[in-house]
Specification:
The chain is α+β, with helices and mostly antiparallel strands. It has 14 helices and nine strands.
């Protein structure tokens, strides 16, 4: 998720203008050739930040554009090109989730450690990023109390980019950091996941919907399981999740998801509203040749 300095400069000019901006005004203000300005406008439009009205340019009516407007008017004296350019938005998106070490940020974003360090050193004096020591390591945090509008913009821009991946006729189930999970009544040019991938692991289901993720990529079994947990809307689908978990317990024993607490409780013999009983699980497990026999005296480790 990149923004160039000139893109941000152009966005600032469009945001602060009380009337739509003509490209010629951007040529003069930015000191660039018309072809360069045209490319900048196209990239900003693709990011959902501006739109064309005839031959003029104005701020789009999208969440990221509105968030940028709030950011600009709250911090108009701040050097926004220096704060947002390059891959800083991606870095801030990661920091917005939880404190991270420099090494973790470099690994998760695939930005070189030297560049991550350069970005962080520039953001710290502005109060955007703070640093604390944990053992021998330093952890960096996003100071979203002071920079709430910046966090809102980073989040809105990321979500807009992710949501653009979802086909028009599909239904979004969940958006993640860099991917989306959705279902459709029609087959899509996307990577099958969730319940649509269960047949690859010996659990064939007759489902109406197709479940997919984008962008396309190779999925590990843990991702497929998490996607199915996020997809599960009713009792029957929760039963499918439990069967998949039982069949692949060795690979999924460390799975982390809010539903896992209830699943483990059910497998210990507890009755949880909206979930199948042990007896119902045993019956379905036998149909799929999944070894599962549980008495109340037998307990699954948490």
């Amino acid at each position: 998720m990149r923004l160039s300095e000139n893109e941000i400069r152009a966005l600032v000019l469009i945001t602060r203008s009380e009337v739509p901006v003509h490209p010629h005004d951007l040529y003069e203000e930015l000191g660039l050739q018309s072809e360069s300005v045209s490319r900048i406008i196209t990239r900003l439009k693709d990011k959902g930040l501006v739109e064309r009205a005839g031959g003029e340019i104005l701020l789009a009516g999208t969440p990221p554009a509105e968030a940028f407007k709030r950011l600009y008017y709250s911090h108009r004296a701040s050097p926004l090109p220096e704060i947002l350019s390059g891959r800083r938005v991606e870095l801030l998106s990661r920091l917005g989730q939880s404190p991270r070490s420099l090494e973790a940020l470099a690994e998760e974003t695939d930005i070189s450690s030297d560049t991550v360090y350069y970005y962080l050193q520039g953001l710290r004096p502005l109060g955007i990023v703070s640093r604390s020591r944990q053992g021998k390591a330093y952890l960096y945090s996003f100071n979203y109390i002071i920079w709430k509008e910046l966090k809102d913009f980073v989040t809105a821009l990321r979500e807009f980019q992710v949501l653009r991946l979802v086909p028009r006729e599909a239904l979004l189930i969940r958006s993640y950091e860099n991917s989306v999970l959705f279902k459709s009544l029609k087959q899509q040019d996307a990577t099958p996941t969730s319940f649509s991938s269960y047949s690859e692991y010996g659990i064939k289901l007759g489902l109406r919907d197709y479940y997919y993720t984008l962008p396309k990529r190779e999925l590990f079994i843990g991702e497929i399981f998490i996607h199915s947990l996020d997809s599960a809307e009713d009792y029957r689908q929760r039963l499918f999740c439990i069967l998949f978990y039982l069949k692949n317990r060795d690979e999924l024993k460390d799975a982390r998801h809010p539903m896992m607490k209830s699943i483990r409780a059910v497998l210990r013999g507890e009755h949880i509203k909206g979930y199948p009983t042990v007896e119902e699980i045993e019956e379905q497990a036998e149909l799929y040749e999944i070894a599962f026999k549980l008495t109340i005296s037998q307990r699954e480790e948490k």
